[in-house]
Amino acid sequence: MSSATDPAKRIPKSLGTDTQFLGKYSLTDLAVAGLPGVLVVLVTQVVIPPSLTVRGIPVSALTIPLAAIAIAFGGLFVYLTPGYTNSLDWLGLFVNFHRSETEIAHEEAKEYTHVERVYPRQDAIERTDRALVGAVQVSPPTMALATDEEWAQKAEAFQDFVNTTVEFPIQIYSTTQAFPADEYVGRYEDRLSDPDVKSNEKLQALIEHYVDWYDRELAQRQMTIRDHYVLIPVRPEEVRYERASLLEKLARIPVLGILIQIVTAPPEEEERAAMLEELDERRRRVERGLRGIEGCDTRPVDAAELTRLIAEYWTGTEIEYGDPEQVLRTSPVINKS
Predict the structure, then answer these.
(1) 238-248 b/e (C-beta count within 10 Å ≥ 16 → b)
(2) CA 219, CA 178: separation in Å to the nearest integer?
(3) CB–CB of 188/211 below 8 Å?
(4) pLDDT by residue (tens digit) across 156-202?
């Protein structure tokens, strides 16, 4: 028998998938769909006393209708299961999500966020690897009606910025936020109560029509506002040695480099002060470089906003802290005596 037809050498078309039993659904899907019905039968036949009635009807007589409804909900759950997973795994994720805590302690959270602490006065965040991170928000030029030549000029200007200004690692981060439709439309709705609008029926109808049209247009387009940021890190080793110096090269050598870093490490407070100073200088250089691009504007991101950005990145939702400055602690709760 040739290897092409040898059953022992067959190659499966996919891994980790169940045999399809009914169309695209597997036996696992059928089991998940039927699980609520099984639970209903167990509860009505085992847990609930047989003498219990509901409006004169024995509960045991309702077992089949209730089980059918439960199976229908189970089938709906299977039907709504995303394509990247199976119904059993999704059920486990669903249960774990609703059983998990909505808030965790900082020591546990930083295993995911890698955020050690925030420096509100210096507008910086310290990572768990002791690197400091700052950010600059970028307002790019409007290019909706730009020509190919203008696009090429902007691209060349950005290339010059990267080649001449950026001598350290950066990260470009873009995110979106919901368009403040209520604030925008509210101005027109407030006009409806003005005397000059009330006395002019045509103007009132025009404003009402515009507000109604704008609400439908926003719902259809799902308009958002895109924000752009440049994240700038500073690592401890970048301020310990002169760039391209002999000590810097030796510090990169395995084993020997660790010993050199231990011996040459400055006091922690001095090192942090040097890192904060370097971070501030890098922020200014990035701002100057980006402002050199025609139509581009920048501003430094304060610690409160940077913290909110990180929180929204990990939660996937917009977060409102009220007064962010009051949320960030500027002094320890317990001081050393």
Answers:
(1) bbbbeeeeeeb
(2) 11
(3) yes
(4) 999 999 888 888 999 999 988 877 777 778 888 888 888 888 888 88
Question: Is 23 in a helix, a strand, or coil?
Answer: coil
Query: What residues contact residue 170 under an 8 Å CB cut-off, 6+ apart?
Result: 230, 231, 232, 233, 286
Q: Record the tokens describing residue 53, joined without a space.
A: 């009635």
Residues 6+ apart with CB under 8 A from 126: 115, 116, 117, 118, 119, 132, 133
Residue 207 is encoded by which pair of tokens? 């404003």
Q: Which residues contact 181 (CB under 8 A, 6 or more apart)?
A: 214, 215, 218, 223
pTM for the model: 0.63
| Contact status, residue 190 vs residue 182, Cβ threshold 8 Å | no
CB 299 within 8 A of CB 230: no
Return the amino acid letter for 279.
Answer: L
